[in-house]
Amino acid sequence: MIIDVHAHWGPWFFTMDVAAANLSAMDRYGIDLAIVSATEAVIYDARAGNRALAGWLTGQDRHLGYVTVNPRRPADAERDLREYLPTGKFVGVKIHTDYTGSPASSPQTREALAMVAEAGVPALVHTWGATVLDLAEVCRDTPGLRVIAGHMGADGYAYAIQAARECDRLYLEPCYSHAPAGRVARVAAAVDRTRLLFGTDSTLIDPASAFGAVAAANLDEETAELVAWRNAARLFGLDLTP
Amino acid sequence: MTAFDARKLVGDLEVTLDVDVLVGAHPDRDGPPGTPESVLDVLAAHRIRSGAVASLRAALFDVPSGNDEVLALDGVVPVGAVDLRDPLGAVREIDRLAELGVRAIRLFPDEQGVEAGFPSVRHVARKAAGLGLVVLTGGDVRRFWQPFAGLEATVVFLDTHFYHLGDFLVAAADEPGFHTSTRLLNSPDALETVPPDRLLYGSRTPHYEPLVPLLRLATSGLKPDEIAAVAGGNARRLLG
Hints:
The complex is a heterodimer. Chain A is an alpha/beta fold. Chain A contains ten helices and seven strands. Chain A has a seven-stranded parallel beta sheet. In chain A, helix 3 packs parallel to helix 4 (74-84). By secondary structure, chain B is α/β, with parallel strands linked by helices. Chain B has a single domain (7-239), classed as TIM Barrel. Chain B is 42% helix and 14% strand. In chain B, helix 5 (87-99) links the parallel strand 4 and strand 5 (104-107). Chain B starts with 6 loop residues before the first helix and ends with a helix. Chains A and B meet through helix 9 and helix 10 of A and helix 9 and helix 11 of B. Chain A: GO terms for molecular function: carboxy-lyase activity; hydrolase activity. Chain A: This is Metal-dependent hydrolase.
């Protein structure tokens, strides 16, 4: 069993045509469940993208959704959280700090994450380099907030280790289009293993990237199971009984 | 066996020649020491039978002694590094390497702080193309295609990211000698979009995980003969 906590649904603006690639890629890598955000919501229009994703999710049994929040549009975010979280098809919030011009340390992202904490669901937040430390600071300052540091800081994974130590409600997921040697192994050796998750960034990135990086870390059986699904199931409160 | 067992997915794929292998270490990064023995061990553990190997010592510190280090290795294709911060010395080194029978040189513009528009890049590109040497180059393909344009150069872009795949494709359409490494072509359809005769497996062992591009290639939509070409056939055609 594998749960992918960082996946997407929808088209991308790069030279790629992968809108339909999702299920086949999941099957190939043994990914049973993917938690997705709508690319439209992440990149351009959160409300429109969330609405489209809600419609698509009604026909899916291997996907759950993130409500994407643009921290610059708090009223929209409040409406979307109220509308979509009770459906049971959405289990968390996605915030992309770059596309919204809202760094983790910005006032609007702090306010958005306070709203997420109030809603009682985890937030997946894009982190790159040292920004993961800013996310840890917001996490510490926001009671009850549970955050996933998307990409675990990418090339800044040493900062991600520090961030995870600074806030025990901060989780890490590894997806990254680069694969520096030993990145996942170092993080796994240094961070509480109950806060390590698996994410791919599919359909932007083929799951080969994250799967291969985690496979290269040679995690022991118990840690691998926590990373593959147990930690995610607990964090999102998922009932996985068949 | 865990959920992250890649062996079954990789299957019996063997790479006969990896176009992007280094010996040596980056002094500004944590990472493996990159001793030749350890690098060859990593390749063997991933069923990568040989590599086009260049020296970080040459790229970062001393060109001749670093290149001599890889020229002394058995069972690999030696690739000569040049220093773009010294274009005159770079050309002298290219002449020396060519006399020694080296077929390829490697450029490290990012590591050397050199931009595509610097005169040294065009100078070295002309020299290499004139001698019929293959150039393996790092750097952003959206910029580094330009100094090689119109030279009938044979170039392998080692840092082509799938974000920039479209730029590579339109540049390569006009340049039959332009090729790309697979290392960062990690989107779900990048490998399937590049003409297979222009794709070369590259891992950047030991500083990157060779398993990631291996897994992507093994699970790609390419046909078996295309996979074999990418896994070393194309590199052998270029590098011998």
